[in-house]
Amino acid sequence: MSDSTTQQTALHSLEEKFQEKIDADIRIEPKDWMPEAYRKTLIRQIGQHAHSEIVGMLPEGNWITRAPSLKRKAILLAKVQDEAGHGLYLYSAAETLGVDRDTMVEELHSGKAKYSSIFNYPTISWADIGAIGWLVDGAAILNQIPICRCSYGPYARAMMRICKEESFHQRQGFEILLTLSRGSEAQRAMAQDSINRWYWPAVMMFGPSDTDSTHSAQSMAWKIKRFSNDELRQRFVDMIAEQIKVLGLTVPDPDLKWNEARGHYDFGPIDWDEFWNVVKGNGPCNKQRLEARVKAWEDGEWVRDAAVAYAEKKAKRKGEDKATQAA
Ligand code: 3HC
Predict the structure, then answer these.
(1) Is the pLDDT of residue 29 over 80?
(2) Cβ-count burial of 327 within 10 angstroms (0-12 exposed, 13-18 middle, 19+ buried)?
(3) How far apart are CA 30 and CA 33, in angstroms?
(4) Ligand 1 centre and the CA of 147: distance in Å?
């Protein structure tokens, strides 16, 4: 047997063992052998997920100074800080796969790495904070709970904490809308207008339909994804169709109708042109979101430099102390 045939046989056997572990629900950890394509898929997905959390702080951060009460301000501030924390866990999880954070950030800033389409829509009223919590975080939870069982250990563990916090986010969003829906006519109208603008982008958040999803089949075989984009989207539509009744408001879909035979709600056509337009960088706020991230990165350079200088100083002192003790 030639050297290259021997290498190919060895690789094949490693791949088989890897898939056996996945099939047996044994977690893959950073030091375990993994196919290069599995590693790359995770870096792509976790990186995109981390960027989404960080960019997701911007539309909500827009309302911190204008929240209608001190209590609302404190809650929103805590929520936006949670999103920053989620981004950090996720960047750390991606780093265990051998990519460094500066590379990921550079890819976001250059437009090479994607982040969730949803954060390219503007927050023009206070009710939007409610709609983001209820619809966007609600969609995020449905998508992310299955990731707690993802085959890659560090990603799955990061998701457990994130999902607990997202659950609080969703409730606070619903509570904002509930309060508005029981308020004045103007407040009810504000809540309805916000749902009208956020509903379809939230439905699209789950990604392209299964027939157009390039990564789903492989990611499901590797148990990175446990459910397809369309399966999760259907769960979302079913959940929201019931919860909206409590608000006494409506979703902007005249075709939404319970289908007894399917045991699910039927829903209207999705505007995929709008989705791809936003994903390709032409949504209402793509440019401003990226500019804000780049500015924050540049403005924060002195903080990163100071942290590195402090760590070096501390390490040097520790070294000197050890040398003194040894003498
Ligand atoms: N926005 C932007 N791009 C999207 C997208 C979306 N909503 N949905 C899919 N895409 C992109 C994919 O990245 C992929 O592009 P690429 O090949 O250039 O990387 C392409 O569209 C094809 O889609 P696939 O279905 O084949 O891609 P995936 O298998 O990766 O599925 C996903 C997409 C369902 C978003 C999956 O990556 C996933 O579950 N990711 C983890 C969760 C996540 O990132 N959520 C983002 C929101 S986080 C959030 O909302 C924060 C919360 O605090 C509010």
Answers:
(1) yes
(2) exposed
(3) 8
(4) 13
